[in-house]
Amino acid sequence: MTGRIPRRARLAAALPVLLAAGLAACGGGAYRREVDEWHEKRLERLRSPEGWLSLVGLFRLEEGANTFGSAADNDFVFPEKAPAHAGVLRLEGGVVTVEPSGDAGITVDGKPVAPMPLASDTTGAPTVLEMGPLRFYVIARPSGLFVRLKDREAELISLFESIERYPVREKYRVAARFEPYEPSKMLTIPNIMGYESIEACPGALVFTLDGQAYRLEPTVSGDEFFVVFGDETSGVETYGGGRYLYTAMPDAEGRVILDFNRAYNPPCIFTHFATCALPHADNILPVRIEAGEKTWEGASH
After folding, report:
1. Within a 10 A sphere around the Cβ of 231, how many other Cβ atoms?
2. Structural domain total, the chain
3. 60: enclosing H helix or E strand
4. DSSP 45-109
5. Is residue 245 in a domain?
6. pLDDT for position 18
7. With contact defined as beta carbons under 8 Å apart, do 279 and 268 qualify?
C-alpha cells in the first residue's frame, strides 16, 4: 500500500466542492443577467416617446393668463412644431384651465379639447394635453405649479445610446437592517431647482460594506423605499447630484436588500427641465460605491 487515495475517491471527495463552486458561479451569472436585463428595460423606458429623454420644457405658471405656442411673444415658448399661438393656460385660485385657440388641434385621449380644468400630477393621473408630437401637463412642486412639456420626436431620443456602468458585483448587493424611527423623522430634501421639500423618513437602513458600517435614510414611494444618495464617486465617475435606488420594504426580520448595482442616474442628468431631488447631508456616504450607473457623457449639468 502506498497510502495514496484512489483517483475515483479523490474525485468523489472533490465533487461536492466543485458542485458548490459551480452553483455559486451559475448563481452569480444569473444575478448579473438579471441586473443587465433590468438595466436594458430602464434604457428602453428612457428611449420611449414618453420617457425622460423626451422632456423639452418646464414652465412655471403665474396667477392669471399664461399664453403658450411657438411664437416668441408667448409666456411659454414651445418648439416650432407647435402653432404660433396655441392658447392660454389660466391659473386662478390653484386651479389650472386650458383655453385652446381654434386651430391649435389640442386633444385629450384623442378628443378635441374645449376650455376645461386640468388635473395635476398630485392626483396620480394628470390631464395630458396632446398637440401633434407634443404632450404637456401640470405638475405640482413645493415652489408652485408648472407645465411639463414632452416631445415624442425629441432629438435626444435618437441620439441616446447607453449609459456606462460599473461591473456588476455581488458585494454591492448588501443586506441592510431597518431601524425604525418612532415617530418618523422629517427630512429636508434639497432639489436641483434650488428649493427644499419636507418628507417623512420611517427609519434608517444600516449596512456593512468592507467591514465598515453605514446608514441611509429612505423615503416611501408607493410600496417601496426610495433612496437618494451620494458617495465619493459623485462628481468624479458618477453624477454630481447623486444617484437613485429603490428597495422593497423590510421583510419579517427587518431586512432590506440594498442593490447598488441598480443605482441609477436621476433624470436631471439628461435635461435641465427635470425637478430632481438631491441627497440630503446624512445620505452622502464617505465611501466609494463602485456599482450602478456612471455619469452620462452628455450630462446636462
Report:
1. 23
2. 3
3. strand 55-60
4. HHHSTTSGGGEEEEEE--SEEEEEESSTTSSEE--TTS-SS-EEEEEETTEEEEEE-TTS--EET
5. yes
6. 39
7. no
User: Using an 8 Å Cβ cutoff, are 169 and 251 in contact?
Assistant: no
Quick one: pLDDT at residue 67? 98
The Cα 232–Cα 275 span in angstroms is 23
Do the domain assignments include residue 298? no
Q: What Cα–Cα distance (Å) separates residue 72 from each residue in 75, 80, 155, 214?
A: 8, 10, 21, 52
* Amino acid at site 47: R
Report the alpha-carbon distance of residue 48 to residue 73 in Å, rounded. Answer: 32
Torsion, CA 104, CA 107, CA 139, CA 83, rounded to 10: -20
> CA dihedral in degrees (78, 56, 240, 297; nearest 10)?
-120
Rg of the chain over Cα atoms, rounded to whole angstroms, equals 25
Place of cell 441611509: 216
What share of the chain in percent tops pLDDT 70?
A: 90
Residue 299 is predicted with a pLDDT of 63
End-to-end CA distance of the chain: 76
What gap in Å lies between CA 40 and CA 46, rounded to an integer?
10
One-character DSSP codes across 238-260: B-TT-EEEEEEPP-TTSEEEEEG
pLDDT of 255-264, one tens digit each? Answer: 999 999 999 9
Q: Are residues 137 and 184 in the same domain?
A: no
Strands 64-69 and 76-77 come out as parallel
Which of the 8 DSSP states describes residue 187?
E
- CATH number at 140 reads 2.60.200.20
CB atoms within 10 A of CB 105: 15
pTM: 0.83
- Determine the structural domain holding residue 278 and report its residue range: 165-283
Residue 20 Cα distances to 14, 16, 84, 217, angstroms? 10, 6, 68, 36
